[in-house]
TrEMBL record:
The keyword Transmembrane helix belongs to this UniProt entry's keyword annotation: yes
Keywords for this protein: Membrane, Transmembrane, Transmembrane helix
Protein name listed in UniProt: Urease accessory protein UreH-like transmembrane domain-containing protein
Membrane-spanning ranges: 6-31, 52-70, 76-100, 133-152, 164-184, 196-217
Organism: Pseudoalteromonas gelatinilytica
Length: 223
């Protein structure tokens, strides 16, 4: 039976695909346009697999560290659950574009991580082979993204590094349908995901899930 957290991570990736298109859609689309028709799909799949591998590595690192502390202290475990719930609320508001609730986190990630990794781009351009597309995706998997960072807060509550990697894998899989097809129907997808009612519905679902997580965390605290 699939872990419910994996399913939730997949759904979050699916619901947040609109944000992924805004962040990485242009790159994914350009890869498909740059490749000939026979290689367009393989380039796109390789790019997204590379992105998923980076997400999994980040999830494993975060979960590996947090699980050690959580196992020694129940209070830390509950605090991490609260953090996950709060970030879900922030993601919901962010997707609905009511406020730039995660912009500060993306700026922090850009300062601490991305400005250094971005220099590696020159070694992979032009992306003219499938291995390069895989590595390019792995590199861009570290692009500062509030949605990804929020998914990582779920990895914080994972009992092991392997489980944390699994959470991020399912999150990545949720983003695959939109990201892989972006070069083929990019205009149509962008129109759908950027429609005001689409953003409101998707954001509301995530907010309600955040409230659910906070209720569970509160219940753990009380009992």
């Amino acid at each position: 039976m699939i872990d419910p957290l994996f399913i939730s991570a997949f759904v979050m990736g699916l619901l947040g695909s609109g944000h992924c298109l805004a962040m990485c859609g242009g790159i994914a689309s350009s890869l498909q346009l740059a490749a000939n028709k026979n290689r367009a799909v393989s380039f796109s799949v390789a790019y997204n697999l590379g992105r998923a591998l980076s997400y999994m590595l980040a999830g494993a690192l975060v979960a590996g560290i947090s699980s050690r502390f959580a196992a020694q202290n129940t209070t830390i475990s509950i605090a991490l659950s609260f953090l996950s719930g709060i970030f879900m609320l922030l993601v919901g508001v962010y997707i609905m574009r009511l406020a730039a609730t995660l912009q500060w986190l993306e700026k922090l990630g850009k300062t601490l991580i991305w400005q250094h990794l971005a220099k590696l781009n020159r070694y992979l351009l032009p992306v003219d082979t499938t291995p390069k597309a895989l590595l390019y995706g792995a590199l861009w998997g570290w692009l500062p993204c509030g949605l990804v960072y929020s998914a990582l807060t779920w990895s914080l509550t994972s009992p092991s590094a392997l489980h944390g990697a699994g959470v991020m894998l399912f999150f990545a899989l949720g983003t695959f349908p939109a990201m892989i097809s972006v070069g083929l129907v990019s205009q149509r997808i962008n129109t759908i995901f950027n429609h005001v009612w689409t953003r409101v519905i998707l954001g509301s679902v995530i907010i309600w899930y955040g409230i659910y997580l906070l209720i569970i965390a509160t219940d753990k605290l009380v009992h």
